[in-house]
Amino acid sequence: MRLKTPREKRILYFKTTVRWLLYLLIIFFSFVIMTSGSWKKPVLLVPVALCIAVNTDIMISALTGAACGFLIDIACGRLFGYNAVILTIFCVASTLIFELYLRKKFFSFMAISAAVSFLQCWLDYKFFYEIWDYPDVERIFRSVTLKVWIYTLISSVVIYFIFKLINRLLMPKEHLTIEEAIRSSG
Amino acid sequence: MREFFKSTRFKVILAFLAFLVGIMIYSVTKGGYSLSGASFINTITKPFRAVSNSISMKFEKNADRIANADSYYEENKLLKQQIGELNKKLAEYDDLKEEVEELRKLVVIKEEHPDNIFSQPADVLGYVANDPFKGFTIDRGYEDGIKPYCPVITPEGVVGITVEVSQYTSTVRTILSPDLSIAVICSSTGTDFGIVEGSVITAENGATKLTHLDKDHGIKAGDLMITSGTSGLFPKDYPIGTVTVTGIEANGLTAYAEIEPSADISRLSSVFVITDFDGKLEDTDETEDTP
To answer: Which of B15, B123, B128, B210 has its CA 20 to 30 A from that of B270?
Structure first.
């Protein structure tokens, strides 16, 4: 990687700041949407956390997972920290999977998002409904858990493309393109 | 000049003037109606006059705008300021009106239950996301004297109980939840006791369930169920809801009834919290109503 000039560094800092501000704004709006109205809603913060996780290093991914998890706990009235733990684990795992095995492509992300959001919804159902052995509890799985998972999956598509746009405009390039390499060597 | 007075032209002019005076006198005798000639002229010229007038008015307006632009600008600014102030006052008025209405409802409840202590009206901040039992968060917390397990009501009836209280907010578990049990009595018979406890199936329809009812009960559809106040968790005589369906439990030993809550739990905007009442148990862990 070639050395950056002071101007390039300034641009890099600026872009990174703007990118993170946009991430925070998306997290904030996702939380607001999740806490509005009484209808069933997607758990937007799961794909948001994953989108951030797959594009950052493992520590930031863990922090993002925890922050989004806490917000889910508040929005869903769950034990404070429960979703933070779960999402931290999932975000770290996703970062590792994308670093080691998968390319950052749409279908890879959707597969990971589907798996993570299903696990989050399923664990929520297990710990907050099934474990208490309510009569007819399986109806909650069908009428709430599965619906919320499908909504989350659909919302993942939109969230993926929003993040893709932000990253395309504001993410620093890790590697030089062939044209840049030729230009810099020349 | 003398020649002119003697001329025919002068005589014609005089005759014409006389004619005009005649017309004038005639028109006086018409009592306010136009002469037919005038009417005809008016009718013919009306569209032209209208167009001409509108052009003229537009021109005048534009000219006036250009000439008095500064004064209009100032006036506009002043009016905008006044509108802003009036809108602000209107918003304040709406808030006050809403508050007065809430307080009026509170006064009615207080008159019915003088021994109960209520919080200030609490706004519903939002429903717990994807909760099948419609739990919600209110904008009052322990700063307002609210503790865990305080009854939450509306003027229509009981809606739930506080379960998680922070400084400025509280989470409410509703009567649709299977985790909340309330001892109730039928207001019409006065003898049929039971426990209102939510269930997964009834919660789907926004209803709750009355269980542990004697098989030989006298409850029928339309009866109002009210809190019995025996548990120490809820004060007595607050409406819970009306009976819609009754039946016998699968075990064949007891009866049940489906209850439609008096308050529409999925559309709440503000509630009251009963912070204290006669017969309240401080240690709620030993009561049958413990959530």
So the answer is: B210
